[in-house]
Fold Histidine phosphatase family protein.
Amino acid sequence: MRSFPELYVLRHGETVWNVEGRLQGGLDSALTARGRAQAARQGEILASLELYGFSGICSPQGRAAETARIALPEVLKLSYDPALREIGMGDWAGKARADLGDVGKGFDLYEAAPGGEGFTALARRCAAFLEGVQGPAVLVTHGITSRMIRTLATGQPIEMVREIGGGQGCVYHVAGGVQKRID
């Protein structure tokens, strides 16, 4: 298994579209009050850690950038990388899951989205990103992209993206191929 630098991985806080059950992909929706509180909680977690020598790398999408502004300590040098954007949802971006019928209820929709990115392409994008990370980093990204980065960094096959766990308001620590959730 390839060894990657130590990572702390954050998903953006809850958005209006998360509450509405809409797929965001490359589109954006503002954080809710709960989402801003989740980002603040992530900031508390990060403040309790020794982050000397870490960089901060964030998706350029608005919901992730807002989360980073709230959660990341000012001591981290922050950069933005489009490789951390959310999985592309193609024609289904902005659609409500409920409008997609049974396919909208699980992870299969990320593979089925017409014009979408799919897991294989996302895995290639995330693997290339991880290969370029030069040292320990705090990453601020999105639900599915976070899962894929953690899947790859723990040496699991991409199908495990469905099983690796997720959530907002927490921080995932990945080091030596092992993931730990910090609440």
Summary: The chain has one domain: 7-182. Helices lie at 16-20, 33-47, 62-71, 108-112, 118-132, 143-153. The domain at 7-182 is CATH 3.40.50.1240 (Rossmann fold).
